[in-house]
Amino acid sequence: MSQRQLRPERLMTFKKTLTAAALAIAICLPFSFDTAHSTGKPGTDFRQVGTASWYGPGLHGKKTASGARFDQNKLTAAHRSLPLNTVVKVTNLENGKAVKVKVNDRGPYAKKRVIDLSRAAARKLDMTDDGTARVRIEVAEYPASDQTASSN
User: Fold this and answer.
1) 36 with 112: CB under 8 angstroms?
2) From which residue to which does the signal peptide run (predicted)?
């Protein structure tokens, strides 16, 4: 018997341990990255729940991903995957307040966040003091070119 071979009883223990570890990873993996979840894809009925944050003074006047200048006093947002110029309804799940914003930027870049809101939008949701809030995002209106593409 070579040194690399395991005895049958050790091999059985190793297999059980490996199986238990694989099962634990498969069960826990979805919960380890982000508590956000979404249903649908851009182009269908999109809904997402997760943590929102807001940004304002430091980026005011800078160019957004859409090419527009960021105005912290307008109702805008940054989202990773929704088409630019999509209008979404964002609802603060802690207090029920809601606001419609236009996605004109990309982000958020902080892990475990699903949307970055302008200061004006954060005020409407009453979340400026806390800095973050648990929200639901629903598409209210896709940009005109995407609406025609998704309806065909």
Assistant:
1) yes
2) 1-36
**What is the pTM assigned to this prediction?**
0.69
pLDDT single digits (tens) 92-130: 999 999 999 999 999 998 889 999 999 999 999 999 999
Provide the residue type at 26 as one letter: A
**Omega of the bond prior to 42 within 30 degrees of 0, cis?**
no
Instruction: Identify whether residues 49 and 72 lie together within a single domain.
Output: yes
Q: Domain limits at 10? A: 1-33
CATH number, position 61 = 2.40.40.10
3-state secondary structure of 76: strand
Token digits for 69?
């200048």
> Which helix (H) or strand (E) is 149 found in, with range?
helix 144-151
Which value, to the nearest 10 degrees, does the dihedral of the CA atoms of residues 46, 105, 103, 113 take? Answer: 50
Residue 77's closest CA among 97, 39, 38, 105?
A: 105
